[in-house]
Task: structure prediction
Amino acid sequence: SETYEPFYGWSNATSFVNDLWPHAEKAAAKLGVSAEVLVAQSALETGWGKHAMKKPDGSIAFNLFGIKAKADWAGQTVQHNTLEFHNGAMRQESARFRSYDSIPDALEGYATFVQSSSRYADALQHKGSDAHYIKNLHKAGYATDPNYADKVLNIISGRTFTEALASMQSSNSMRMEA
Result:
């Protein structure tokens, strides 16, 4: 497993999954999808936490889903560079993003954001299908990357995520036996 400098205690994919998992389960229950799809989406958006947005003071902004701060957002914000696709071409631009105080706030904010936006109504008609959810979220304009949904689904089935889940489940069962 790839190891890197800890940002928020995320020294690898396993620590990232461990920190997000219990909160992803709560948010996923509200959306009717699996925690896997939310953690995978966050892994894509943040590079397993390596590229999580920071506030000007260097602390983490906890925007784990790349949600921009539109005019209706009354909370904290952070300015951040982002890659956007326009007419098939990728370009870097600076944008205002939501900022949260914690992982639970970020996941709660994400669930509320998706549920409260009529543009994501088709994504929420997923009948328990993570693929339907993420593909329709993307189709509704959640991300400009033309391969966004496929990238999230590939993370779910990929080795890094599979190993991180197995490690988390193994450490949880060892704690229960102790």
